[in-house]
UniProtKB/TrEMBL annotation:
<protein>
    <submittedName>
        <fullName>L-idonate 5-dehydrogenase</fullName>
    </submittedName>
</protein>
<dbReference type="InterPro" id="IPR020843">
    <property type="entry name" value="ER"/>
</dbReference>
<dbReference type="Pfam" id="PF08240">
    <property type="entry name" value="ADH_N"/>
</dbReference>
<dbReference type="InterPro" id="IPR036291">
    <property type="entry name" value="NAD(P)-bd_dom_sf"/>
</dbReference>
<keyword id="KW-0862">Zinc</keyword>
<dbReference type="GO" id="GO:0046872">
    <property type="term" value="F:metal ion binding"/>
</dbReference>
<keyword id="KW-0560">Oxidoreductase</keyword>
<feature type="domain" description="Enoyl reductase (ER)">
    <location>
        <begin position="8"/>
        <end position="336"/>
    </location>
</feature>
<comment type="similarity">
    <text>Belongs to the zinc-containing alcohol dehydrogenase family.</text>
</comment>
<dbReference type="InterPro" id="IPR011032">
    <property type="entry name" value="GroES-like_sf"/>
</dbReference>
<dbReference type="InterPro" id="IPR013154">
    <property type="entry name" value="ADH-like_N"/>
</dbReference>
<keyword id="KW-0479">Metal-binding</keyword>
<dbReference type="GO" id="GO:0016491">
    <property type="term" value="F:oxidoreductase activity"/>
</dbReference>
<dbReference type="InterPro" id="IPR013149">
    <property type="entry name" value="ADH-like_C"/>
</dbReference>
<dbReference type="Pfam" id="PF00107">
    <property type="entry name" value="ADH_zinc_N"/>
</dbReference>
Length: 344
């Protein structure tokens, strides 16, 4: 089978690997679609994503969907040909979570994640024609949700988790800074959860157009020097840019809340944080998700349309070109077609 493998910075190859066989409690998924994430781009560009550094070749991809090709012994409720997506997190070990974070499985000390070099050996992702997956990580797609859209359940789950971290958003005016794929999906998640008005800000006109299509009521092109709004009770930073924190904190109302969903650098970086103290802002971190992937699938079943966030589609053999496009400023979500017969 073919697999998209990063061997080092700027060293991406389409490798041939043996087709895997499912063991007890596992299924083999014939992958159809994958969405390129910022972490995939980081591994390809730098050999590092956050604090995780490549030590060995790694199959990329954690936003994936396909169809069951084969079930291993001891599995039930899954059938060959069934369209599915994957919850890509696999907590390791049996260490219980402290009571204060009970149920927040995204905060386990050790979590293996598809397409991650956080541990050695690395955890291969799903940008391949086939991938063995634990049966408990499989999520069947609802009727009417294509495998292409199913591959976006993972980033939509990230957005829904961030919105959940903010509490009840019904009737509120919200600022979303950074309108890349995650920011655009945060916009959609906020509107889905009942936000009254969502303002999206970004440097890219392309990203702002996507945010509008995903439900933003107003957009701010900060590249033109336009200021962010003032006194917004609830803000989200989806840019992950330390330089953006100062303006977003200033835009957040005194006593307001800022949810940090954009992944900040793992090393020291300058940021203007004075307003965090003087305005008594509550700064909340949001990391991946728990089981919001189920909420994401339900939202798509109920009509949340993720198609505007998709800007490009490439075949598996053009993965290098796809990553280059995803790394540029003129794209939103770049999709990889991982087989030759996937239906849109």
């Amino acid at each position: 089978m073919k697999a998209v493998v990063v061997h080092g910075p700027r060293d991406l190859r389409i490798d041939e690997r043996p087709r895997p066989e499912p063991g007890p409690g596992e299924v083999l998924v014939a992958m159809e679609w994958g969405g390129i994430c910022g972490s995939d781009v980081a591994y390809w560009k730098h050999g590092v994503s956050g604090t995780a550094a490549l030590r060995h070749p790694l199959v990329l991809g954690h936003e994936v969907a396909g169809r069951i090709a084969e079930t291993g012994p001891g599995t039930s409720g899954l059938t060959d040909g069934q369209p599915v997506t994957v919850h890509p997190a696999e907590p390791e070990g049996n260490e219980p979570l402290p009571e204060r974070i009970a149920g927040r499985t995204n905060l386990h000390r050790r979590i293996r994640y598809f397409g991650s070099a956080a541990f050695d050996p690395h955890t291969d992702g799903g940008f391949s024609e086939y991938r063995v997956v634990r049966a408990d990580r499989i999520r069947p797609l609802p009727e009417g949700v294509s495998t292409e859209h199913g591959a976006l359940a993972e980033p939509l789950a990230v957005a829904l988790h961030a919105v959940r971290r903010a509490g009840d958003v019904r009737g509120r005016t919200v600022l979303v800074n950074g309108a890349g794929p995650i920011g655009a999906l945060v916009v959609a998640a906020l509107k889905h959860r009942g936000a009254a008005a969502v303002i999206a800000s970004d440097l890219s006109g392309t990203s702002l157009r996507v945010a509008r299509a995903m439900g933003a009521d107003e957009t701010v092109d900060v590249s033109s020097g336009a200021p962010l709004p003032e006194d917004v009770e609830l803000s989200f930073d989806a840019s992950g840019a330390p330089a953006a924190l100062g303006p977003v904190l200033r835009a957040t109302a005194r006593g307001g809340t800022l949810v940090q969903v954009g992944n900040l650098p793992g090393a020291a970086a300058p940021a203007a944080l004075g307003d965090l103290v003087t305005r008594e802002i509550t700064w909340i971190g949001s990391y991946r998700f728990v089981e919001e992937i189920d909420d994401a699938l339900a939202a798509m079943r109920d009509g949340l349309d993720v198609s505007p966030v998709i800007s490009h589609r490439f075949g598996l053999d053009r993965a290098g070109e796809a990553l280059a496009v995803a790394a540029g400023s003129g794209s939103s979500k770049v999709m990889l077609r991982l087989d030759r017969t996937a239906a849109r």
